[in-house]
Amino acid sequence: MTETPPAGNSEPDAPRGSLSLQTIAMPADTNPHGDIFGGWLMSQMDLAGGIAARTRTGGRIVTIAVDAMVFHKPVSVGDVVSVYAEEIRVGRTSVTFRLEAWVIWHDTMVRHKVTEARYTYVAVDENGRKRPIPAADDVLSA
To answer: pLDDT at position 119, please?
Structure first.
Protein backbone atom coordinates (compact mmCIF):
# COMPACT_ATOMS: atom_id res chain seq x y z
CA MET A 1 0.00 0.00 0.00
CA THR A 2 2.98 2.34 -0.06
CA GLU A 3 4.61 3.98 -2.98
CA THR A 4 8.25 4.94 -3.29
CA PRO A 5 8.67 8.69 -2.81
CA PRO A 6 10.14 10.52 -5.79
CA ALA A 7 13.80 11.57 -5.62
CA GLY A 8 14.21 14.66 -3.47
CA ASN A 9 11.07 13.94 -1.44
CA SER A 10 11.93 13.78 2.26
CA GLU A 11 8.79 11.85 3.20
CA PRO A 12 9.77 8.48 4.67
CA ASP A 13 8.04 5.46 3.20
CA ALA A 14 7.12 3.98 6.58
CA PRO A 15 5.84 5.35 9.88
CA ARG A 16 8.08 5.56 12.93
CA GLY A 17 6.80 4.04 16.15
CA SER A 18 3.97 1.64 16.92
CA LEU A 19 0.40 1.85 15.70
CA SER A 20 -1.64 3.34 18.54
CA LEU A 21 -4.94 4.32 16.89
CA GLN A 22 -6.74 3.85 13.59
CA THR A 23 -10.00 5.44 12.41
CA ILE A 24 -11.80 6.69 9.31
CA ALA A 25 -12.29 10.40 8.56
CA MET A 26 -16.02 11.10 8.32
CA PRO A 27 -18.11 13.94 6.79
CA ALA A 28 -19.00 15.42 10.20
CA ASP A 29 -15.28 16.20 10.72
CA THR A 30 -14.88 18.52 7.70
CA ASN A 31 -14.34 22.25 7.39
CA PRO A 32 -16.30 24.40 4.89
CA HIS A 33 -13.83 23.44 2.13
CA GLY A 34 -14.39 19.71 2.58
CA ASP A 35 -11.06 18.90 4.23
CA ILE A 36 -10.90 17.29 7.66
CA PHE A 37 -10.47 19.86 10.47
CA GLY A 38 -6.93 20.10 11.79
CA GLY A 39 -8.39 20.12 15.31
CA TRP A 40 -10.04 16.76 14.69
CA LEU A 41 -6.72 15.32 13.58
CA MET A 42 -4.98 16.82 16.63
CA SER A 43 -7.55 15.18 18.91
CA GLN A 44 -7.02 11.79 17.23
CA MET A 45 -3.29 12.20 17.78
CA ASP A 46 -3.89 13.11 21.42
CA LEU A 47 -6.02 10.00 21.87
CA ALA A 48 -3.29 7.85 20.34
CA GLY A 49 -0.58 9.48 22.45
CA GLY A 50 -2.77 9.15 25.53
CA ILE A 51 -3.13 5.42 24.94
CA ALA A 52 0.64 5.06 24.57
CA ALA A 53 1.33 7.26 27.62
CA ARG A 54 -1.18 5.41 29.83
CA THR A 55 0.35 2.10 28.79
CA ARG A 56 3.88 3.40 29.49
CA THR A 57 3.08 5.04 32.84
CA GLY A 58 0.73 2.35 34.12
CA GLY A 59 -2.13 4.70 34.96
CA ARG A 60 -3.83 8.03 34.58
CA ILE A 61 -2.13 10.74 32.51
CA VAL A 62 -2.88 14.29 31.38
CA THR A 63 -1.70 16.11 28.26
CA ILE A 64 0.53 19.06 29.14
CA ALA A 65 2.11 20.10 25.84
CA VAL A 66 1.92 19.77 22.08
CA ASP A 67 5.05 20.89 20.26
CA ALA A 68 6.24 21.12 16.68
CA MET A 69 2.86 20.35 15.11
CA VAL A 70 3.26 20.22 11.34
CA PHE A 71 0.43 19.57 8.89
CA HIS A 72 1.97 18.18 5.70
CA LYS A 73 -1.07 17.20 3.63
CA PRO A 74 -4.86 17.41 3.90
CA VAL A 75 -7.05 14.54 5.05
CA SER A 76 -10.25 13.77 3.16
CA VAL A 77 -13.49 12.05 4.02
CA GLY A 78 -13.04 8.29 3.75
CA ASP A 79 -9.28 8.31 4.36
CA VAL A 80 -8.06 5.71 6.85
CA VAL A 81 -6.13 7.63 9.52
CA SER A 82 -3.44 5.74 11.45
CA VAL A 83 -1.50 7.34 14.30
CA TYR A 84 1.88 5.96 15.34
CA ALA A 85 3.58 6.72 18.67
CA GLU A 86 7.31 6.63 19.37
CA GLU A 87 8.54 7.31 22.91
CA ILE A 88 11.33 9.88 22.76
CA ARG A 89 11.75 10.98 26.39
CA VAL A 90 10.82 9.76 29.86
CA GLY A 91 11.32 11.99 32.86
CA ARG A 92 10.43 11.49 36.51
CA THR A 93 6.74 12.35 36.02
CA SER A 94 6.40 13.06 32.28
CA VAL A 95 6.75 11.20 29.01
CA THR A 96 7.03 12.61 25.48
CA PHE A 97 6.03 10.85 22.29
CA ARG A 98 6.65 11.66 18.65
CA LEU A 99 3.29 11.10 16.98
CA GLU A 100 2.83 10.68 13.25
CA ALA A 101 -0.52 10.59 11.49
CA TRP A 102 -0.55 8.68 8.23
CA VAL A 103 -3.49 8.17 5.90
CA ILE A 104 -4.37 5.73 3.22
CA TRP A 105 -6.09 7.94 0.68
CA HIS A 106 -9.47 6.45 -0.14
CA ASP A 107 -9.22 7.16 -3.85
CA THR A 108 -5.66 5.89 -4.56
CA MET A 109 -4.98 3.49 -1.65
CA VAL A 110 -1.56 5.15 -1.26
CA ARG A 111 -0.18 5.87 2.24
CA HIS A 112 1.12 9.35 3.13
CA LYS A 113 2.30 11.05 6.30
CA VAL A 114 -0.06 13.97 6.88
CA THR A 115 0.82 15.31 10.34
CA GLU A 116 3.48 14.99 13.02
CA ALA A 117 4.07 16.49 16.47
CA ARG A 118 5.50 15.90 19.92
CA TYR A 119 2.97 15.37 22.72
CA THR A 120 3.98 15.40 26.38
CA TYR A 121 1.95 13.76 29.13
CA VAL A 122 2.27 13.85 32.92
CA ALA A 123 1.44 10.86 35.09
CA VAL A 124 -1.06 11.78 37.81
CA ASP A 125 -2.60 10.00 40.77
CA GLU A 126 -6.30 9.67 41.62
CA ASN A 127 -6.24 13.24 43.02
CA GLY A 128 -4.69 14.72 39.88
CA ARG A 129 -1.26 15.24 41.47
CA LYS A 130 1.94 14.33 39.66
CA ARG A 131 3.24 10.84 40.36
CA PRO A 132 6.51 9.15 39.44
CA ILE A 133 6.60 7.02 36.30
CA PRO A 134 7.65 3.46 37.07
CA ALA A 135 10.53 1.83 35.20
CA ALA A 136 9.41 0.32 31.88
CA ASP A 137 10.02 -3.21 33.16
CA ASP A 138 7.76 -2.57 36.18
CA VAL A 139 4.89 -1.36 34.01
CA LEU A 140 5.13 -4.16 31.45
CA SER A 141 5.26 -6.90 34.09
CA ALA A 142 2.24 -5.62 36.05
So the answer is: 98
